[in-house]
Amino acid sequence: MLDTLEYTKVEGENKQHRVTVYALSTCGFCKRAMAFLDTHKFEYSYIYMDKVPLETKTEAKKILKDRYKQDVAFPFAVVDDRESLVGFIEADWKRTLEV
């Protein structure tokens, strides 16, 4: 189901990781997370979960929680389809994304 969502792709020079961000359009932490990715020139995809139907958001959150064994809060980033980052804690993002 996650692969059927309409993501926005941001082109970038840094392609060392595949990053997908689940965000809210009004979330300051989400904006900071994507600005971090932009600053480090990452290529990534994102979707604003507050812009999709409630049923879709609910199902996506359940899938993410089951798959990554973490409660979903925004931003929720998936790195290389195997690791997740919840919220924006810059030190965690730097460590996981190796910057």
Summary, kept brief:
The chain has a single domain, classed as 3-Layer(aba) Sandwich (Glutaredoxin).
CATH architecture assignment name: 3-Layer(aba) Sandwich
**Number of H- or I-type helical stretches:** 3
Structural class: alpha+beta
Helix content: 25-40%
**Top-tier CATH class:** Alpha Beta
Biggest sheet record = 5 strands, mixed
List the helices and strands in order: EEHEHEEH
Taking pLDDT < 50 over at least 5 consecutive residues as the criterion, the unreliable ranges are none
CATH superfamily, called what?
Glutaredoxin
Strand order of the largest sheet: 1-3-2-4-5
Radius of gyration: 12 Å
How much of the sequence lies in strands comes to: 25-35%
How many domains make up the coordinates? 1
Kindly report the average pLDDT value.
97
N- and C-termini, Cα separation:
31 Å
Explain the overall architecture.
The protein has helices at residues 28-39, 54-68, 90-97; strands at 8-10, 14-23, 42-48, 76-79, 83-86. The protein is of the alpha+beta class. It has one domain: Glutaredoxin (3-Layer(aba) Sandwich), CATH 3.40.30. It has a 5-stranded mixed beta sheet, with helices on one face. It starts with 7 loop residues before the first strand and ends with a helix.
List the helices and strands and how they pair.
Layout: E1 8-10, E2 14-23, H1 28-39, E3 42-48, H2 54-68, E4 76-79, E5 83-86, H3 90-97
Parallel strand pairs: 2-3
Antiparallel strand pairs: 1-3, 2-4, 4-5
